[in-house]
Specification:
576 residues; alpha+beta; six-stranded antiparallel beta sheet; 39% helix; disordered N terminus
Length: 576
């Protein structure tokens, strides 16, 4: 199989949407893939490209294993904390950082690659279609190597030395890992069926308890339970540029959420994209470059401007030096910056807000039809309530499961800030160089506190590994995890898979299972919609109509979804 199916690995924030997992790959995408393989010129050079490594340290010491969850290379280390987060510290030149990261995290890296490829095998079981996708990926990524700085390619090359040998038939390790960094962008570009939303906000001045900048963000990414198991909090001290931290996983050097020692923070939120014909700079690499080399918002803007991206994305930047936040909005055609004056509050969902996109039809349609504006308004509502913002209250907003006006909208609804699928939640206090990172599950586990000044002031040693977290500042896990409602949500997830599978395979389900499914998450419109689909398929029109009517009474996620439910109700009412 091949990770060329990365199109369906859609983070943005981003899990791959439930619609994609149920329906497989759209026919339109297969058409694009087929046409692409007919025009394969320019691929050969990209397949042979390797980064220049002559100026870098190409040998590192052997890894030492201190326990089943602690490893060192000199004063560099990887260790698992009590909350289940892996803490990584590495330094050196680009190749050295890649080699050390690969060596220290090799088991996590190979687990992540296996989880990713297993998910793709599930989506695309056909060997013939896998071969087609493999050809497509080589063609689609033919210009990516020209658009990634040689320093990052050297780091990726070092990392790739520790990739699994089991997938060399797909592509060379270096190419596999290089393409892996464009997975979010490719999925965003080719799928773009239902963006799952990342939500971010910043407050400062008279909006926060201490007057300092405070930023909260959910990274709503889902590529299967296995993929979310091993989160890495990486602390990187590069030879050139700023020291920084980011939340990542094995085999990935890009940045999704991070802060550097200048108090500059970067997070990314996907916007509405059209389908581009070629991959250029992955957005996570743009974010990495900003984090490593920028100290102010203006420096971040300058870096983003010089890079050619191939999807639409909001880069949310907070700055201790500027004492505020701004949103850099990039796409293949437009570039905009959105800031607020005399407000002390900035909110970002999955639509653009700058003047550059004011007349953009795709963005306008996305605001009207998706769940992005709804989440924006919910953040606005919550930020307007209660006392001034603290790290603890920021975490409460990230964990919020309700709709506007505290309406119960069902667990897992994409209109909620907390969709119970997040890869991680994170809170930054840039002026104090403090950050809080969630532990499993989702953003509901304990938020672990780190002080970047302390982390980079102390290094590991060959004799042991230092404690990186500032434990007394940790924010406790959510009380929701101890409730019957959370236990029911676990049942809902497993029953959802069972019902969806029965619909896809047209197999029989016991009535009692459908009752349990409805009771597991009764306020979520999709539960009733799936039950209606099952009954419709079995020819039970009266039961199907009742289920669809229940779905319509709930908070349906998007305008297209509402229209779909309404059409089914109308069709059945006429039939009956």
């Amino acid at each position: 199989m091949t990770p060329v199916t990365a199109p369906f690995f859609e983070p943005s924030g981003p899990r791959a949407s439930h619609k994609t997992f149920r329906s497989g790959i759209p026919k339109m995408v297969w058409t694009v893939l087929l046409l692409a393989t007919l025009y394969s010129c320019g691929v050969s050079k990209s397949l042979k490209d390797l980064p220049e490594l002559g100026n870098y340290q190409n040998e590192i010491p052997q890894r030492r294993q201190l326990s089943d969850s602690s490893f060192t290379i000199g004063h560099n280390f990887l260790s698992k904390n009590r909350q289940g987060l892996w803490e990584l510290y590495v330094d050196g030149d680009p190749l050295e950082i890649g080699l050390k990261t690969g060596s220290l995290t090799q088991e996590l890296f190979q687990f992540q690659e296996r989880a990713f490829i297993n998910k793709i095998n599930e989506l695309v079981p056909s060997e013939g279609k896998q071969k087609l996708l493999k050809k497509f990926l080589a063609w689609y990524n033919r210009k990516m190597y020209r658009n990634i700085d040689t320093r990052f390619k050297a780091e990726i090359y070092g990392l790739s030395r520790y990739a699994s040998k089991n997938y060399d038939h797909i592509a060379t390790p270096y190419l596999r890992v290089l393409y892996f960094h464009g997975a979010h962008d490719i999925g965003h570009a080719l799928q773009d069926l239902a963006l799952v939303g990342c939500s971010s906000f910043a407050t400062w001045g008279n909006k926060t308890a201490d007057g300092k900048l405070l930023i909260g963000r959910n990274f709503d990414f889902y590529a299967g339970d296995d993929f979310a198991k091993n989160k890495i909090i990486a602390f990187i001290a590069p030879e050139k540029g700023h020291n920084f931290m980011s939340v990542t996983w094995g085999g990935f050097i890009g940045v999704l959420s991070g802060m550097n020692d200048q108090g500059l923070t970067v997070t990314i939120n996907a916007g509405k994209s059209s389908i581009p014909l070629v991959a250029k700079t992955p957005i996570s690499i743009v974010a990495r470059e900003i984090l490593q080399y920028a100290g102010t918002i203006d420096e971040a803007i300058a870096i983003a401007k010089k890079r050619e991206v191939f999807v639409s994305e909001s880069i949310f930047v907070g700055s201790a030096k500027d004492k505020k936040a701004a949103i850099i909005e990039v796409s293949p055609e437009k570039f905009g910056v959105y800031e607020v004056d005399n407000n002390g509050q900035l909110i970002c969902a999955n639509h653009f807000q700058s003047a550059a996109y004011a007349q953009d039809k795709a963005n306008t349609k996305h605001i009207l039809e998706s769940h992005s504006q709804y989440r924006y308004e919910r953040m606005e509502e919550l930020l307007g309530q209660g006392p001034k913002m603290t790290p603890e209250s920021a975490v409460e907003i990230l964990r919020d499961r309700e709709g506007l006006g505290d309406k119960a909208i069902g667990y897992g609804n994409e209109k909620a800030l907390n969709q119970l699928i997040a890869h991680h939640g994170i809170v930054f206090q840039p002026e104090d160089l403090r950050v809080w990172v969630s532990s499993n599950p989702y953003q509901m586990g304990e938020f672990v506190a780190y002080d970047l000044q302390k982390v980079f002031a102390q290094k590991g040693s060959v004799d042991g590994i230092p404690k990186l977290a500032t434990a007394e500042k940790n924010i406790p896990k959510s009380a929701f995890l101890e409730t019957a409602a959370y236990e029911a949500y676990g049942s809902y997830k497993s029953l959802n898979k069972e019902v969806s599978k029965a619909i896809a395979s047209k197999t029989h389900l016991e009535r009692s299972l459908l009752v349990d499914f409805e009771q597991s998450n009764p306020e979520f419109w999709e539960v009733h919609y799936l039950i209606g689909q099952y009954y419709l398929q079995r020819g039970y029109d009266t039961l199907a109509l009742s289920a669809f009517r229940k779905a319509a009474e709930k908070e349906v996620t998007t305008v297209p979804d509402r229209e779909k439910v309404a059409k089914l109700i109308h069709k059945l009412e006429r039939r009956l």
